[in-house]
Amino acid sequence: MAKTNIDQETLRALADEGNETALDLLADLADEAGALSELSELLDEGSMRAGFLLTRRAAGTGDLRDLQRISDAGYEEAGKELDRLLKAAVGEQGD
Fold first, then answer.
1. Mean pLDDT along residues 77-90
2. Burial class for 1, CB neighbours closer than 10 Å (0-12, 13-18, 19+)
């Protein structure tokens, strides 16, 4: 099966028509490019893939505020990750 190169403009048009796979691919491309503002915009459009990618980045750097923002934007896993990091921080203080 031949690999097809699809440009971002076509992906954007498909995503605007409700194609979730195209929205996920746009999120992957933005992540690869390090385009955090584009990922945030995709999350605002309802891309759970963008939420996952942003959460992974924020958790990796320990950015609690960003995790809260991602959670507030509708990606529930960010809230769970925020809770986990907060509990871990409290546990470290108790040592």
1. 94
2. exposed
